[in-house]
Write a structure and sequence with these properties.
Strands 1-2 form a two-stranded parallel ribbon. The chain has one domain. It is built from 12 helices and 2 strands; from the N terminus they run E-H-H-H-H-H-H-H-H-H-E-H-H-H. Helices cover about 65% and strands about 0% of the residues. Helix 10 packs antiparallel against helix 11 and helix 10 crosses helix 12. It is an all-alpha fold.
Length: about 280
């Protein structure tokens, strides 16, 4: 933030401070009551707070990273899409001509926070703390990898790069890369409003990474398996248009999620093995 000459708008911190206060009461005060569901609600407040902090810090971090990045790589990303046989403009025209696709795509794209709410609620309800933090660790690591990879392939996005003329349908992500990255690089934008954050990462797609994480995590839970699969498959399909992403961005997002999950599972297995070695053996 300091290197990019950016600051947080203090007034935008107020709603987050209030939310943190409420979650703190639920986490630390509620368990002292005699309510039989207090520990479930307390655990849920803890998990949701940790997830919210990861998501918020990740979104804020994209601004200084974008401001310190150089060049645009739309031509490279588009060439890869052409080699893969993906026609973004054809997909966009189809969505622009059908209102129901626009409504469905917007709803699916916005569902990125619904799946973790269901998963973390399930873990709190069933007292699965280790599973909750394994999921949170995977989400955090995927966010870190995405942020580290982002400066290598900054881009305006296919809507700004490929479409010329009046825009018949403005997707959920609009043209924020084109509107925000140049001012951030020129240091014309000094303040970040936390209530008006916009996604600036083009490649890898974090929506694709998140969808992969949610599907894999939910697949282990019979009651959530198919609802989460359907919800996140829809989110994945909506991302090229609503997130204004090249198709290669999605593939890179899947790769990010795969790396994050493999690392977290390996660390969990190592920690479990170490715990077993430390346990006293019965004679």
């Amino acid at each position: 933030m300091l290197a990019a000459n950016l600051r947080l708008a203090s007034e935008s911190l107020i709603p987050f401070a209030i939310a943190a206060g409420v979650m703190g009461l639920l986490r630390f005060v509620l368990p002292a009551t005699r309510w039989r569901h207090a520990h479930i609600v307390s655990a849920g407040a803890e998990y949701y707070t940790v997830f919210g902090l990861i998501a918020l810090m990740g979104a804020v971090a994209t601004y200084p990273i974008a401001g310190l990045s150089h060049g645009m790589h739309d031509a490279t990303l588009q060439r890869v899409d052409e080699a893969l046989g993906f026609d973004w403009l054809a997909w966009y025209r189809t969505v622009a001509e059908h209102r129901w696709l626009q409504i469905a795509g917007t709803a699916a794209y916005r569902s990125i926070y619904l799946s973790p709410a269901l998963l973390l609620g399930y873990f709190a309800l069933n007292r699965q703390r280790a599973a909750a933090y394994r999921f949170l660790a995977g989400f955090w690591l995927a966010a870190v990898i995405t942020l580290l990879a982002y400066p290598m392939l900054p881009a305006l996005g296919p809507l700004s790069y490929l479409w010329h003329g009046p825009i018949p349908y403005m997707p959920e992500s609009a043209v924020w890369q084109a509107d925000l990255i140049p001012p951030l690089r020129a240091e014309h934008m000094r303040w970040i409003n936390l209530t008006q954050l916009h996604g600036l990462v083009e490649a890898p797609s974090f929506h694709a990474a998140a969808a992969t994480l949610y599907i894999v995590t939910g697949w282990r839970i019979a009651s959530l398996r198919w609802p989460l699969f359907a919800m996140n498959a829809a989110m994945f399909l909506s991302t090229p248009i609503e997130g204004t992403h090249y198709f290669i961005d999605l593939l890179l997002g899947v790769a990010v999620a795969a790396v994050a999950m493999v690392v977290i599972e390996a660390l969990a297995a190592t920690r479990g093995a170490g715990t077993l070695r430390q346990m006293p053996q019965s004679s």
